[in-house]
């Protein structure tokens, strides 16, 4: 992250680092409403300090998922806690920001028109997916984890296990795992070559970064959480079967 030249216009600075647009937005400034104004003027009129802006910019640059390998030695409850925190960030920060960027685009061509039309539906489907995942997959895996670490009621656990299946959930997850495909196709993989509209460039860069986040998020689930959950399910099923035999 380079030092900000406060004498440059917001457009120049954002062109160099699109994440600056998000930092400014967080502090109450939409860069595209002040594109040709210098950062120095914007800071003065907005009552934002350079220190505040740099701190938020550094924080946003640091927001990256570790790779799936990082989680291989974690217990499932810790992995789920991490994934739920990611869901929270998506719903409370990333999606509202991208939605506002897209809503404020000038409807000047087919791409901007289609983005404004399609993205709200993508968001709606994605949020449904998140809540369903937390209410089914995460709920069930945490029940299995609890049964594996503490005493449990065999009949209650048997009833829960009759309603869920990690194998079935994994298959469904694999098939229903690419919410951003339509956006990728629409934007030709977020291509910005030859594009002069900095606002639209920021939209595409943010969509691409969000897509990459979701890809890593899915890898954590598919390559780490599901295999661990399958092992847990088999182990708990064995405990339940042995417990029932003793009655």
Q: Report the sheet-strand fraction.
A: under 5%
Q: What is the N-to-C succession of helices and strands? A: HHHHHHHHHH
Structural class: mainly alpha
Question: Largest sheet, described in full?
Answer: none
| Mean pLDDT across every amino acid position | 92
Uncertain residue segments:
none
Number of helices, where a helix is a run of at least 4 consecutive DSSP H or I residues? 10
The rounded Rg comes to: 23 Å
Query: What is the CA-CA span between the terminal residues?
Result: 65 Å
Which descriptor suits the 3D outline? elongated
Roughly what percent helix? Answer: over 70%
Report the count of strand segments. 0
Could you provide a short overview of the structure?
With 247 residues, the chain is mainly alpha-helical. It has helices spanning 10-16, 19-26, 39-46, 50-61, 76-103, 110-149, 154-163, 166-175, 181-186, 198-245.
């Amino acid at each position: 992250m380079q030092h900000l030249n406060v004498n440059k216009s917001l457009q120049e600075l954002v062109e160099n680092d699109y994440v600056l647009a998000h930092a400014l937005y967080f502090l109450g400034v939409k860069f595209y409403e002040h594109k040709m104004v210098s950062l120095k003027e914007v800071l003065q009129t907005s009552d934002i300090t350079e220190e505040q802006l740099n701190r938020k910019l550094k924080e946003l640059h640091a927001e990256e998922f570790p790779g799936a390998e990082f989680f291989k030695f974690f217990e499932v409850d810790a992995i789920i806690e991490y994934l739920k925190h990611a869901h929270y960030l998506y719903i409370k920060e990333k999606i509202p920001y991208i939605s506002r960027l897209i809503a404020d685009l000038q409807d000047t061509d087919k791409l901007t028109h289609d983005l404004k039309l399609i993205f709200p539906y993508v968001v709606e489907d994605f949020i449904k997916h998140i809540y369903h995942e937390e209410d089914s997959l995460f709920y069930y895996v945490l029940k299995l984890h609890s049964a594996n670490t503490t005493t449990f009621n065999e009949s209650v656990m048997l009833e829960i296990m009759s309603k869920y299946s990690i194998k079935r959930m994994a298959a469904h997850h694999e098939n229903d795992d690419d919410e951003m495909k339509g956006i990728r196709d629409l934007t030709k993989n977020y291509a910005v070559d030859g594009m002069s509209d900095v606002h639209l460039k920021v939209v595409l860069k943010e969509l691409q970064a969000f897509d990459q986040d979701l890809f890593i998020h899915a890898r954590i689930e598919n390559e780490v959480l599901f295999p661990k959950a399958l092992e847990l399910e088999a182990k708990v099923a064995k405990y339940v079967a042995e417990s029932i035999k003793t009655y």
